[in-house]
Amino acid sequence: MDTTLRDRLAVDGASWDPETGRPIDFGDSARELDAALSTCALAERSDLGRSLATGPDILDLLHRLTTADLGSLAPSDGKPAVLTTPKGRIVQRLFVHRLDTGTGVLMVSGPGGAERVRSHLDRYTFREELGLGDAASAWTHLTVLGPRARDAVAGAGLPTPDAWGSAPCRVEGVDLHVVGHDGLSEKGLSVLVPGPGAVEVWSRLATSVSQVGGGPVGDRALEGWRVLRGLPENGTELTEDHNPLEAGLWDAVSFSKGCYIGQEVVARLNTYDKVTRDLRGLVFSGELEPPARGTPLFAGSRRVGEVTSALVPPGRRTTVALGYVRREHSGAGTELVVGEDGAFRASVVELPFAELS
User: Fold this and answer.
1) 293 and 169 in a common domain
2) Which residues of 24-55 are buried (b: 16+ CB within 10 A; e: fewer)?
3) DSSP readout, 237-304?
4) DSSP secondary structure letter of residue 339
């Protein structure tokens, strides 16, 4: 993070995680979570992976490697996509944007995912000209999320492109891009700002977000918002243990385009209704520490799933989680046993979660 932006976030009350160096909160994680769920919130998300390709062959390669139909992507358009293994498992979920003419193709991935994306593309690159590089140092990534995200971005005098789209603009002599997602879903917006303009754009957005009832949000509340909204993330729900369909990434999969790596497996899962697990919400009974990722779930003595992300959201008392559950046990209201010792139980709920105490 640029040091001048870090200083600006500190003025807004940011506390820092000593391990990641990221803002963990802005003084009140419960208030921040409430704002993200009910109005909107502003987050610094330069932890997300960002790769930019300027070569002429990048879209053709992505079309052949991902689940999305990207061959005819027009300037300022974008789509969600998934890089998959030959067995149809998830390598990385991407948000692919063909920015305005002359800028290139932007790929936004999960935290720390840019290197994995570039390594995967390199593995399948032969004579293609990709012009592929890391865009993390070029742009600060700011996101506005929540129900009134578009109102806040418009109030800051910035464009509000459609879901997955993008729009260039100029603020105080600095060229930037607004893209139609919040880093996890198409419900919010992201602003990509060259380093020198990050403080000015943050300030503009912070003022506008405040005017619609929101504020800045740190990573603690951001993770609570992600889980309560039921949004899978690379590295937790989205891994090579799972395929795009059981993760609920149907909007990122084209069933009409030609072949891609893993296409036969994904198509077979859809055609023959062979998806065996679903990503579901879990509400735990009793007071317990959030179970670790990978904690097994049982129906009787049979293992039927595992926890992927678990927490007590800020300002709440109830432990909740995301997890994969076998379809025959994934209906809302199904009660499952948590862990090998069977000391706690969890109820399956549809996503997103309803309001919690």
Assistant:
1) no
2) bbbebbebbbbbbbebbbbbbbbbbbbbbbee
3) TBSTTS-TTTTT-GGG--SSS---TTHHHHHHHHHTT---EEEEEEEESSS-PPPPTT-EEEETTEEE
4) S
Residue 354 makes CB contacts below 8 A (sequence gap 6+) with none
> Measured between alpha carbons, how far is residue 150 from residues 143, 157, 161, 239 in Å?
11, 11, 9, 31
Q: Are residues 13 and 60 in the same domain?
A: no
Instruction: For residues 37 and 24, give the distance between their C-alpha atoms in angstroms, rounded to a whole number.
Output: 18
Phi-psi region of 296 (alpha: psi -120 to 50; beta: other; left: phi over 0): beta
Q: Profile the chain (357 residues) by mean pLDDT over runs of 10 residues.
A: 89 94 97 98 96 94 96 94 97 96 92 93 89 91 98 97 96 93 97 91 97 98 98 97 97 94 96 96 88 96 97 95 97 95 91 83
Count: domains in the chain: 3
pTM of the model: 0.96
- The range of the structural domain enclosing residue 344 comes to 276-357
Q: What are the CA-CA distances from residue 198 to residues 5, 94, 110 (Å)?
A: 6, 24, 21
* Spatial separation of the C-alpha atoms in residues 312 and 291, rounded to whole Å: 10
